[in-house]
Write a structure and sequence with these properties.
With 126 residues, the chain is mostly beta strands. It has a domain of 43 residues. The chain has one helix and three strands; from the N terminus they run βαββ.
């Protein structure tokens, strides 16, 4: 396989226009790139920045590092879609909403008393 060559062109800004001393962030970026295996090949001076050409070889291109896609697992069938089971939530049967805006809860009416059992000797009421 052929040797892979990566090339970058970086603009590194200088402290004073026309000077050659780099700003702190530009100097740090250049040091980091050199530590990661990049070599400075060319340097062109401009008024506000220095354009640096960097190369490195022997690294595989990033597209070869992507792993193969894992096949998707099949999902179980969802019967009763949109209802049944959970209650509440979106699309499901929910109960009545509670009180709003801090209002006191509405009291439910008291259940009616059960009728007294009738005895067999009593005449039916008309």
């Amino acid at each position: 396989m052929a040797n892979h060559l990566e090339v970058r062109h970086e603009r590194l800004y200088v402290k004073v226009p026309g000077g050659d001393k780099l700003r702190k962030t530009a100097d740090g970026r250049l040091r980091r790139l050199v530590a990661d295996g990049w070599r400075e090949v060319d340097r062109r001076q401009d008024t506000d920045y220095v354009q640096v050409r960097l190369e490195r070889s022997g690294h595989r291109p990033p597209m070869m590092l992507i792993p193969a896609a894992v096949p998707l697992q099949t999902r179980a069938r969802r019967d009763n879609f949109g209802g049944g089971g959970g209650g509440g939530g979106r699309g499901g049967p929910g109960g009545p909403r509670g009180p709003r805006d801090g209002a006191p809860p509405v009291a439910s009416p008291a259940p009616a008393p059960a009728p007294a059992p009738s005895s067999p000797e009593a005449p039916p009421a008309l």
